[in-house]
Amino acid sequence: MNWNWLPLLRDRWVVTSVGVTAGIAVGSIILGFAWLPYEQPGERFRGLWDAICSAAGLIHVAPDRQPVVQAGYPTTQVEIIPGMLRDASAESVGRGATLALRCTMCHGARGMSPANTPNLAGQYPGAIYKELADFKSGARSSAIMIPLVADLSDRDMRDLAAYYAYLPRVHDEGAADGGTPQIVADGAPMRNIAPCGACHGELGNKTGAPWLEGQPVSYLQAQLDAFASGARRNDIDQQMRNVARGMTPAEIAAASRYFAGGP
Amino acid sequence: MLPSRRMILAHFWLAFGSFGAALLLGEWQMFVRSPLHAWIGDPELYYRSVTAHGTTMAYVFPTLVAMGFGYFVTEASLRRPLVGLYWAWTGLALVAIGTVTAVVPVALGRASVLYTFYPPMIGNAFYYIGVVLVVVGSWIWVALMSVNLYIWKRQNPGAPVPFAMFATVAGSYLWGWTAVGAALELIFQIIPAAVGLTNTIDAGLSRVFFSWTLHAIVYFWLMPAYIAYYTIVPRAIGGRLFSDQMGRISFILFLVVAMPIGVHHLFEDPEVGSGFKFLHSVYTGLVTIPTLLTVFTICASVEIAAQRRGGKGPLGWLAKLPWRNPVMLGVAFSFIMLGFGGAGGIINMSYQLNSTIHNTQWVTGHFHLIFAGAIVIMYFIIAYDTWPHLTGRALDSLGLMRTQLWLWFIGMIVLTFPWHYVGILGMPRRMAFYDYTDPVIAQQAASVVMSVIGGAILVISAALFFVVLARGQISARMEPGNYRFSVATHPPRTLPAALNGFGLWLSLMIGLTIVNYGFPIAHLLAAQGTEVPVVRVGAAR
């Protein structure tokens, strides 16, 4: 055993500096990990150790030991990543075109239809794939779509997404422009609603957010209403439900009309 | 004349050259997002510029100044040629190559991630590799400072290390250790994702690693300025350093407590527990102590100069100070900006007050006032004071220097005070576009315009700075003699080992880092399911 370090304990610089530093550390730790947690209103701990674990950042189990509540309904299982499905092969687009023949009744021969169903031409492939997968898993309900996707394979859904993304978007220039509604342009910061364009914008599209322009007004309105009421709940982290719940019926109507291109 | 003056001068010219270019980008950013200019239409261009500005100003410019000034102090204070001159040139070459490597992908729009990286955003790998090269180049400097001190101490056993050298080595050790956090983040998390080895990243862990670097890097920027306060100012204005030992204690305190405090940048982050946030807040508060010690010591040193010139009374001595001396002017401006910036910093480090100004323009105003104001104005003083010893030519544009310093001071106040104000009004930082026709933010328009004007004054001041330096390169040759640092009122003949070396303080620095960072990092490393998909900058979305 080497005891050469022992004289260090007699050096007042060592003893003082280490002592002061350790003292401040210990004092701050007692304050920050034991006293302050109890001072927070609304925090309930089962004891000192629970408070310390909470202050250390460990995942906090509710005081009455209730397990984390799982949603009582299927949630989306699709993981959206940036740029997903963007580099589709010609073969994939071709297969998608063949598969899409069964979709033409409602969505039109080239992904555009006056039937008040979503126009799919030029939609982001990630958005199409996610909705198909959600219909298949039951995360999104539709009496029409669910039986149609039941026997689609994962590859079928990717090919369909590739095909519709490949089709050119058709801009409806005929509709009158009544200006941009406040809820679309600025959102409602006091209600925690971001401007629609923050995610669905032409320049700033966020991963997973679909292209909305030119969609039928009745479809947009029905979806916002469904998000608001909770009837539709396949949005990741409740992003759209939180937005739609805070919107007034008039704002929902105005936003739907705006994106549909109507006055 | 110093043996390595060409190498030191190369550091300074590269530093100030990059500073000049990045300054123009900064003013362009202020202008295009102000009400004076229509929206540029493409936010990407703005973020490219912010990334280049931040990367240059945060990594390249202060690192090169610290390196060049460090080599200068080594030769001037130890009075012997630098050991490892070729290594010093290698370090400079690495910084230069790293800068170009990093800036090219930024200019191409492949790395608009800002200098703080912001994972899960991932830019082109060459951007990060460039930053790593800059850091590796600076680590060569850290090693050279240590080696030169070691050789000198072996040849002068028991003799007090010259104060300037002591402080410089403290700064280099601070940087050597604080850069480790970002290096870990880059090498183990970001670069693997950038080259495509991984597609996910634990962004929370990355932010903790970066906070390790992010705060102490500010004190690394500060070190040359503080060294100039202690070792240049009292001599240049004809005074004496009030206390050599007090200065050493200040630098030691910076070394120990400046490092493990970075979590105060993560007050709004969920991945760190509130207990650690409090702990880091306490140590952040302690950093005020070396700053206040410094303010006291330098004010006392300046008063000595005034008394030697016949100054009397509690405040009457102020009038006797050599106000026409650029160094006097520079240190006064620096202290005023340090005072305001420091007061703002105390607000930032307070958990509750921080929530009011977190991620607002207040923060941008704060670090510009401290770094671009209090610190960079002392970089100017360092350049002015050392230039004749590096070029062997007189630097005699005194009027121009005074104008330059005045303009920098006025410009910085006009730039940053409105910036703080709009931050309190809630204006977020890091946004490319503000619609000032919106009644909610219309009231901020006038303040933003004032900031643009402040930035323009800074550009003029920087132009004058380059004129002064350039004239110094072509003026008449002269023999500047030996460089002199400040002399203390009581120069130490012997010092306790603790004030003449770093072993104890480095142990405390590393020990405190383990206490303050060990658990959060270990916890996040062990946590499962904390990875998120990376977002590749410039890729299709």
Key words describing this protein structure:
heterodimer; A: 263 residues; mainly alpha; Cytochrome Bc1 Complex, Chain D, domain 2; 3 domains; 46% helix; 0% strand; elongated; B: 541 residues; Cytochrome C Oxidase, Chain A; two-stranded parallel sheet; two-stranded antiparallel sheet; 17 helices; globular
N-to-C series of helices and strands of chain B: HHHEHHEHHHHHHHHHHHHEE
What portion of the residues of chain A fall into strands of 2 or more residues?
under 5%
Shape of chain B: globular
Kindly report how far apart the N and C termini of chain B lie.
58 Å
Q: Which class best fits the helix and strand makeup of chain B?
A: mainly alpha
Biggest sheet of chain A, open or closed, and with what strands and sense? none
CATH topology of the largest domain in chain A, what is it called?
Cytochrome Bc1 Complex, Chain D, domain 2
Calculate Rg of chain B over CA atoms: 23 Å
Q: What is the number of domains of chain A?
A: 3
CATH class bucket of chain B = Mainly Alpha
CA radius of gyration of chain A is: 28 Å
Mean pLDDT of chain B: 94
> What is the multimeric organization of the chains shown?
heterodimer
> Main beta sheet of chain B, described?
2 strands, parallel
Distance between the termini of chain A: 88 Å
| Total strands of chain B | 4
Uncertain regions of chain A: pLDDT < 50 for 5+ in a row? none
